[in-house]
Write a structure and sequence with these properties.
The protein has a single domain, classed as 2-Layer Sandwich (GMP Synthetase, Chain A, domain 3). A hairpin with a 4-residue loop joins strand 1 and strand 2. A 3-stranded mixed sheet has the order 1-2-3. The protein has helices spanning about 1-20, 40-45, 50-65, and strands at about 20-30, 35-40, 70. By secondary structure, the chain is of the alpha+beta class. It has 3 helices and 3 strands. Helix 1 (about 1-20) crosses helix 3. The N and C termini lie far apart (about 25 Å).
Length: about 70
């Protein structure tokens, strides 16, 4: 499952990098929650929650139906 998540994140990464940010996979929990770390400009962006929920989570859930949620960690 983690391999599929990382592959999905690789598809998202170029869009974040275009704006000076990035995303890093941290963990896939037993509760089917994906934990990611936002990097670069994304880490301090006031829209980071929208990026996580409206962008990253939406795509990960579409490509990996087992995923329940995505959370950003520091």
């Amino acid at each position: 499952m983690e391999k599929n998540i990382v592959e999905s994140l690789e598809k998202i990464r170029p869009y974040l990098q275009r704006d000076g940010g990035d995303v890093e996979f941290v963990e896939y929990t037993e509760d089917h929650i994906v934990k990611v770390r936002l990097l670069g400009h994304c880490a301090g962006c006031p829209h980071r929650q929208m990026t996580v929920k409206g962008g990253i989570e939406k795509i990960l859930k579409e490509e990996n139906p087992e995923v329940v949620a995505v959370e950003a960690v520091s």
